[in-house]
Structure formats: C-alpha cells, structure tokens
Amino acid sequence: MKWSKKPTSKINRIRSWALGLIFAAMIVMYLGVVLLYMAHSRILFGIFLILGTLAFALSFVVYFWIGMLSMRAVTVLCPNCNHYTKMLGRADICANCNEPLTLDPTLEGKEFNEDYNNKRKSEALEKKEGR
C-alpha cells in the first residue's frame, strides 16, 4: 500500500518545518539534561544546550523569513472554497481546501506539480508535455 503525501501550501509547509525544528531543539535540550544526570558530564550538557539554542535560533529565523515572504505573497480568492489564500510561485495549493491554484494562464487545466515553480524542472516538464 502506497502512502500518498497530502499536498499543502508552501507557506504552511515551511511553518510546519519550523515548528518541527522547535520540537527537535527541545528534545536536544532534554537529552542534555538527561546526560547531565546520567553521565554527570557538564561538557556534554553544555554542548546539547548550545545545539538546542542554535536550533531555536534557526527556527526563529525561518519564522521571520516566512513572515516576510507571506507579506509579499499574492492573495487570491480560491474558486473552490471562496476563501482568500496566499500564493507563492507559479503554482500553489489553497491553504483551506487544497485546491491547486495558478496565476499563469499556460498552466490552466494542467495537473498540479510543484516542479512548475522551479525554472529548470518546469522547462523539463514543458518539454515532456510538448512531445
């Protein structure tokens, strides 16, 4: 049985990645505390604490970056659910109903593929479809 990944909008995918980074940072810090009590090693505790703090800082940077991208994103009205959603790139998915969206008239009616947002992959897809 093949598990298909549910498509999500790019903004939500990046936010989920940043949230996972926060949880990873907390786990790393807890491992440092456990090592402090089990191995009585302050050096390992310090290393794990610093690694966790760096992961938190990276998560902060990712959240800041996606916030800046979200401010510049084009807001469109989804034709399926009639909610406004933010769109990044040539092709994206509605954050509410997962309907494929595009502002590019050449992609209208085509099956959704995230590769349309990558120039090199998009050219390869268009050559493949043109045959």
Automatic annotation (TrEMBL):
Keyword list, A-Z: Cell membrane, Membrane, Transmembrane, Transmembrane helix
Organism encoding this protein: Macrococcus hajekii
For whether the record's keyword set contains Membrane, the answer is yes
Q: Which residues cross the membrane?
A: 16-37, 43-66
Protein name (Swiss-Prot/TrEMBL):
Uncharacterized protein
Q: Which Pfam families match?
A: DUF2614
Annotated InterPro entries: UPF0295
